[in-house]
Amino acid sequence: MKKESFLYNIKRYATLYIMLLPALVGFIIFQYIPSIGGFFVAFTNYNLVDGFFKSPFVGFKWFIQFVKDPFFFRLIRNTLLIGIYGFLWGYPAPIILALLMNEIKNKFFKRLTQTITYLPHFISTVIVVGMLYNFFGYTGLVNQVLKCLGMKSVAFVGNAKWFRTLYIGSGIWQGVGWGTILYLATLSGIDPQLYEAAIIDGAGRFKQALHVTLPGMAPVIVVTIILSVSGLLNVGFEKVYLMYSPAIYDVADVIATYVYRRGIEGMDFSFGGAVGLFNSFVSLVLLLMANYISRQVSENSLW
Amino acid sequence: MKYKKGFGSHVFDIFNHSFMVILMLTMIYPFWYILCVSVSNYEDVALGRIKLFPRGIHFSAYKLLLSANDIPLAFKNSVVYTVVGTFIVLFISTMTAYVLEQQYLPYRKFVIVLFTMTMFIPGGMIPSFLLIKNLGMYNTMWAIVLPGAFGVWNILIIRSNIRASVPKELIDSAYIDGASDWRIYFTIVLPLIKPILATIGLFVAVDRWNDFFGPLIYLNDSNKYPLQIILRKILITGETAKYWEKAAGPLAQSRQGIGFFETLKMATIIITIWPILLVYPFIQKYFVKGVLVGSLKG
């Protein structure tokens, strides 16, 4: 086959390439430049005049500064604890809910449950945090209920002891229904003959769930675990930012919010950029590790 | 599936159904409660008397919010960012998907790889912020609507949809009749993929409407703030002094004052949330399908 020249091809399919141009330019500007620029920012002394590519090179200066930062351990600890507790509580929740939903035989009731539990997913983080602070405030709904039950009011909001519980609990409230979609789809893909065979062998509903349903979900479960582990350090900026205050920085300040305060509010661009890059790098290492371990202990992995 | 249900199985069913009902209540009741408080009497609100129904229905909190400048302005900004943002995403994604679906096009594979690789490279808050500054987009609408417009997921989903719902013969015969790519794209492809456009459009619109990160980082002119930013000020950081003085001033220390403050917050939530609740029934018709296409492609 003859290979046509580049210019010939471009001319021949000019219209198609013109249609492709906006996306091509957009991907380069808004995806490639920030990620390549991210490396330059972190390893240079960034200033607005010289920009991404001409600022003076300083090596690992910012990374070393971060490791020596008085807040370094606190940031890593807070980020990891939110990530790990969030994983321990939040990861199984949609799987359990999907298993329970799967046992509902009435189609209408099942559909209703799905429709309603998916709803909070579409509510913005600002509203979720606003609702949280209102319902769990000192005079809020939850404390009114506690009072009715004869218990003492609890200061949930702005309380370092309750921060993680509120953060993770509201996260589950918002995401548990939506999280079932993937698992329910997997469940509907399990061969019904397997259930019939199990029934003939005398398995009850619990045994069917244990020996047919769970093994059917195993591959998806492995994939979602790997992805969750790599996200342990990627505690979302938005929600922490909306929920925290200087009074509870001790438990609530995470890497992402520190990047924001130092990098954007404090205009310490290179330092903030280096901390952000450090975070991405650790996440990548976690992903590779989770994938490696999963390949060793089971035959499932991402690649 | 027919088999004899044992006693344990019945107990489980009762437990399971009750659990689901309670779960649904925890997700529906908060919204109902917010609506009730937003239209109730201040004193009843302050005393925590609102449980299942509003008391002494009135809309003064809404009137107050809508007569002040910032909420209507923020609402308008949110609508503009949502409409423009959604339009850009749909236009670019469909056009790109159409081009990338033309199997004979040279360099097509290279472009697909170039786009797909962006899923694995980190962006980061600081470089994105600096980019927007350098592009001169800081404090403009473009900083809100453009950065999120270039996602590979939507392109892949739309592309597989074009493959499934636009017959190849139709495009070929249009070519033979002398139609240009623009014409084919606008008059043949777009009408045939309307359902997926509606689905993706609704998802993107909800995302844009709820966006808080973009406006927080890229805007600092209060005339350009969307609702989510104003919402944070009223709900979380409690910057309500303005309203406080205007309507509750002398009442501020009284029960009514406290109730007023609550009612105002809840009314702000309702103002922000109703467009979402309005489109939700339409989304929910599509969402399982839409999300599944996404996950299967992955």
Rounded to the nearest angstrom, the distance between the terminal CA atoms of chain A is 34 Å
* Rg calculated over all Cα atoms of chain B: 25 Å
What CATH first level of the domain at 69-239 in chain B would be assigned?
Answer: Mainly Alpha
User: What would the average pLDDT of chain A be, to the nearest integer?
Assistant: 89
Q: Cα distance, first to last residue of chain B?
A: 33 Å
CATH topology of the largest domain in chain A, anyone?
Answer: MetI-like fold
Q: Biggest interface pair, residues each?
A: A-B, 85 and 86 residues
Number of domains of chain A: 2
Strand content of chain B: under 5%
- CATH level-4 homologous superfamily of the domain at 69-239 in chain B: MetI-like
Strand content of chain A: under 5%
Broad structural category of chain A: mainly alpha
Percent helix range of chain B: over 70%
Query: At the first level of CATH, what is the class of the largest domain in chain A?
Result: Mainly Alpha
Per the CATH scheme, the topology name of the domain at 69-239 in chain B is MetI-like fold
By DSSP, the count of extended strands of chain B is 0
Q: Give me the secondary-structure category of chain B.
A: mainly alpha
Residue ranges of chain A: pLDDT <50 for 5 or more in a row?
none
> What's the CATH H-level homologous superfamily of the largest domain in chain A?
MetI-like
Q: Tell me the overall shape of chain A.
A: globular
Could you give the count of β-strands of chain A? Answer: 0
